[in-house]
Here is the input.
Amino acid sequence: MTRPPTVLPTDEPRRRRQTILTLVLLLTALLAALAQGSSRAAGVASAAGRTDWAATGTGWAAIGRPSATDAVTMRATSAGGTRPTVVLVHGAFADSSGWSQTIGQLTDDGYPVVAVSNPLRGLTADANYVRSFLQTVPGPIVLVGHSYGGAVITNAARGVSNVRALVYVGAFVPDAGESIATAADPARFPGSLLGPDTTIVRPVANPAAPDGQDVDIYISLEKFRQVFAGDVSAQRADAMARTQRPLTATANFEPSGEPAWKTVPSWDLVTTADNAIPPAAQQAMAARAGAHVTTVASAHDVIGSHPGAVTKIIEQAARAVT
Here is the structure.
């Protein structure tokens, strides 16, 4: 005979839910206790020399907070040596990685080196940005600029008393009132291949522009090697073209302020195979600044294709002012 199904009392489901809830609460309490114990252990480990982010205030939440200890360490590191700090400023259509080989050579020779990322938004804004960095560097500085970076260092060094030398490499050296568009006047110095046929523009918002609107200027992929990087392989030039950082029209046309080269000694590496800044224009700007001039048979990308020549003139300047 089949036994009829057992019918649970009406309060049995309630008791089961209470039992499950009790187990959940016990498990939660156990996990909390384990976590507290782990935190205490981490604190002990931190006291023994390991980093506990919560205890020390490090990590993402602490990024950007000035540290007195770091400032003292930086001062001791830079000022303790006999060599000046070399600060490198790239130009348009490039970035700080272009200095990589020169950085390696300079550090091998015992120079403190840092490459500043140039915003490429506007001459005044870019110079102010670089100047704010220079004001954090103790001891003598050799300030180096490539291409448009030359216009930036011309203005950034103004009022920074520990900048002892300016070094221009394939660079603009503008006077007051000149922009990079007028410093190498194409009527006087023909030969630059930069122009509407080799560049493209894209609209962009730019706080440094007078009305907040601007255009970014790029060298076209097809023309990049011819204009900028004629001394490197086609493969490398293609990679450089695809990773180039654009210059705004504001930066291209904004006039320079009073140039630092009037009071700071300068050196100039003129690139004699340059299709971006005509060599004759470079020579004229260097002569006007009273710079110590050296030449190299290089395309515009001298910092990547001839790093040895770049290192040599930087070290010449450093030795002359220290």
